[in-house]
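Below sits the subject:
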Amino acid sequence: MTRSVRQHVLFGAICAMVVLAVAAAARAGDAPPAEAAQSQQPVACPDPNALGVSRVIEIDATDGPRFGVPGPEPFQLLHDKEVILTFDDGPVRRYTGPILDALDEQCVKATFFSVGRMALSDPQTLRDTANRGHTIAAHTWSHKRLDKLGAAASKQEVELGFSAVALALGRPVAPFFRFPYLGESSSVRAHLRQRHIANFAIDIDSRDFLTRNPSVMRRNVMSQLARKHRGIILFHDIQPSTAGGLRALLTELKANGYKIVHLVPKTGIQTLPDFDAMAEREAQRRKVALSLQPLADRAAVWPMTTGSPERLPWSVDSTAADAKPAAVRPTNAPKGLPALPPPVRPNLKPAMIEDNWATNPLGLP
């Protein structure tokens, strides 16, 4: 073989290698790097007609990878017609329960980003969620906007949230985090990377907090999927529109050829002792509040300041908080006694407050 022929053969081999590499990259599409996510085989569903889980992705949270579209550093995780179901802000038994039942009917698994104080309010529902095979993650301690807080306060919201959710669950949770209101800050992103916590944004917003109508929620999801064809879907397991509409939505997803992907962590998060102690103190304060106010077991919030009484969102106006209750007199009181004032009925539909996740914690229509 002449030198010229050898050069042509070598050049052709190099070109072939380049073509093969380009083809492999095209086949890989938007698949994440192997070090960030690995696919696993899902557990077989006993119902062959159910939607089921098509793929399980194990997330390695080392170095704090980011997933989802909004904001900087978008990280595409899914292939065409694949969706991830995520639920924020719970648990609230009235709504989380029906959501879990709907997921069970279709053999579908999801990720629940729980607020720390909500988890301590109802640890039983949180444990039931985990026992049904869903991934438990954290969504701060009290759902504050971290992009409006300083670095120290933001760190406390993140770390106390993880400690409280882990305490309520009774075991380590996934090192997965979502910013409340998707309000990211550079300092918290850096903290998440340092702590090896994955940051999950979203691709599809159900906007379930804007409506009580399950059909509106479903249209929101399907219309966005019609444009994007895949995505991490945001729901809230404290919203009646999701609790009432998820069963029909899962049927609609199946009919339109969508597949469910379930996220699981490679390892659980190691919480920090100082914040574990804070979570323990908050849990003890919760027990005290329950002993003083029987209705407090339904509360979504309780005070952060030591020694202050619990303020229930549906309680009477604060201006009357210090007033002594009117004396109870029989309706057939003798003449001459002043008339009794009409009974004060508690406001069971609390007004909208800063954190809409805590609105209407009683779940009343």
